[in-house]
Specification:
Blueprint (H helix, E strand, L loop, with lengths): L17 H8 L13 E11 L2 E10 L2 E9 L12 E8 L5 E8 L5 E4 L8 H15 L4 H9 L6 H15 L21 E4 L2 E4 L5 E3 L1
Antiparallel strand pairs: 1-2, 1-4, 2-3, 4-5, 5-6, 7-8, 8-9
Helix pairs in contact: 3-4
Amino acid sequence: KGMTVYRDGSRDGVLISKDEKKKETNAFTETAAPKRPKTLEAKIIRFNNNHEKWLAVVGMMNDKPYEIFTGKAEDAFHLPNYVSTGEVIKSLNKDKSKRYDFRYKDKDGFNVTIEGLSRSFTTEFWNYAKLISGMLRHGMPLKYAISLVSNLELSDDSLNTWKNGVVRALSKMLPDGTKPKNTTCTECGEDDLIYEEGCLNCKSCGYSKCG
């Protein structure tokens, strides 16, 4: 039987050399974030962090976290305990600067709008939240975003407390059974950790850590 040999480049799209395959594997792909609509559905996550009550507002797009704002509940706006969902609305001030408002429905079904999310949280927390939101909207897998935030080395105690709060909030968004990135159990050393209801649980020894 006859045999046909193709030289690299002689049949574009038919044969791919090993070097080309390697280049594809090592490709560094840039992403473009989907355009934010004026209004995003949002989830409210409440949790305790160092014995303090914290609140997170997570804007969702296609059932995935798109942006996150979080801080101490006492520093944030007043929100009734029954509110678990709402909308984050991108608005313009008179001077054309941008702001984010939060809207929810009260018990009677009427809309209640709280203007200026940015002034409801500490400035430092807000600025870091914008960075993390940028990672989320550009498609960083959630477990990698959690790993990155949890490994931040911050000298300020309040920022470390905030960091733990962000990790706790984002962890609650992970599907049960998700394995963390490059993490082994601190108790038994096994690589058998999974996320369940926002907590990191070891299936080997029963160790559990929330946040």
